[in-house]
Amino acid sequence: MSKLPENQQFLDLSDYGRPFGRQIASWLVPTPLTPVHVTLGFALCGLLAIFSIYQQHYWTAVFFLVLKSILDAADGELARMRKTPSYTGRYLDSVADIGINLLLMYSIWQVTDGSKWFFLLAFLGLQLQGTLYNYYYAILKRRFQGDTTSRIFERTPPKALAGERQGWVTFLFRLYQGCYGLFDRAIYAMDRKAPSAKHLPKWLMTAVSTFGLGFQLLMIGLMLALGLKDFIFPFFISYSGFIFIFIGIRRYINR
């Protein structure tokens, strides 16, 4: 199953782990393991990647970062195969991602000579990039009845779906808001009219998918393994400039 109808799918450069994630999900369907268990599994992979960075075992870190991306796809695929979408899983997934991202960038700071300001700017850039990608993707999913737990605007706690508790949904929503609210508001302020845009062409979405977490983690892992660790922070800081380029292209197309 996919997040978008077949005729609306685009080449998502951040989603390379989905074919493997879909296969893992199909294996897990008859087991007692839930999507939340898979989410915890990808969080563990992220922590193992961070530990590998501290040990300067960079190819091992690449392995765990790629495995994290695969499991990050598998939890949602498992929920869709079982037809058990949940806001609990959706928010837990996002909160785990930002926590791992922060620790990952901190670990890179510890093994390089980068300044703390580069560390903070790179982390902020990483998150703003991902937020723009998720913003445009959520617009597409809502427009074409894709992932039912995706919302363009996360302003109020959603009503719990079957099988989940409202208390957990509300708690995780508040946690999500605390982690992502600033980034969501910043991107929305930059491109308020995107939800009403008639055109989000596939080629643009493919370009914006380089802001997706899977692609970001792959770039970080490869730069570490290839001896380019000192360039990771400058790369993500400078690449954040493409936020304005992609928004400008989106506006030009829909002028």
Automatic annotation (TrEMBL):
UniProt-listed Gene3D superfamilies: 1.20.120.1760
InterPro entries linked: CDP-OH_P_trans (IPR000462), CDP-OH_PTrfase_TM_dom (IPR043130), CDP_ALCOHOL_P_TRANSF_CS (IPR048254)
Keywords (A to Z) from UniProt: Membrane, Transferase, Transmembrane, Transmembrane helix
Superkingdom in the source lineage: Bacteria
Entry-linked PROSITE patterns: CDP_ALCOHOL_P_TRANSF
Spans through the membrane: 36-54, 91-111, 117-136, 203-225, 231-249
Similarity annotation: Belongs to the CDP-alcohol phosphatidyltransferase class-I family.
Protein name, entry field: CDP-alcohol phosphatidyltransferase family protein
Annotated source species: Robiginitalea marina
